[in-house]
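Section 3.1: Structural characterization of target chains.
Under the original work plan, the team committed to producing a structural model for every single-chain target entering the pipeline before any wet-lab resources were allocated. The record below documents one such target. The sequence was received from the expression subgroup and is listed exactly as submitted; it comprises 244 residues.
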Amino acid sequence: MVVSVKIAFDGTNYHGFQIQDDVPTIFGTFQEALIKILGHSTDIKGCSRTDRGVHAKCFILSFETHKNLNLSRFPLAMNANLPIDIRVIEANEVSEGFHARYDAKGKEYTYYILNSHIDDPFNNKYYYKVASNLDVNKMNEAAQYYVGYHDFRSFMAQKSNINDCHRTVYSAKVEKIDNMVIYKVSADGYLYNMVRIMVGTLINVGKGLYEPEKVKEIILAENRAEAGPTVPPQGLFLTNVFYD
């Protein structure tokens, strides 16, 4: 049977999803727990390669097993073998050949900015603090320039060697709830550090360093040096994955 698993995790203590030697990763930790349940190793496919320190409220994995699993109890069994910062939410049988990454039609990310001089002692691992006053209306206006099919080379980490940087952004929105500024973006795919550079650019707009239309110029420049800084990972969450 082929199984699709929805997990959520706090990425603080992990070096991203992809397995690496000698450092903890989401993949490696999940794999260890899964082998205990299945009694055999299997090829685990993840929907995304999240960076070190990035979190997920919705992350999809898939794997194949010859065991006839009780999927209603599978989350409980897995969670008993996982650390508290990784939780299995649900598991479902899917069609043969399903691939968590390649079958995904899009993903939604959310970034949290605490717009305050004072940190929140309870949630300081889950946002980026900006003390300067931010013009959220201008940030949201600027975010609309991201929407559509563009070459997002200006919003890709310089060490990346991807040739085709075209992506389609379906929606982008900035809003403020109390003292939290929230950026939500949905796209068919993302470049390395793309969302974090998008946010850094929007923060520059919010501070008055750029006018909103500057974002259009940055996209057309196809030059990383033209965009804003890469904000830290702890404010970033994968919040949804879309399939047919």
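The helical segments are 26-38, 74-79, 136-143, 194-206, 214-221.
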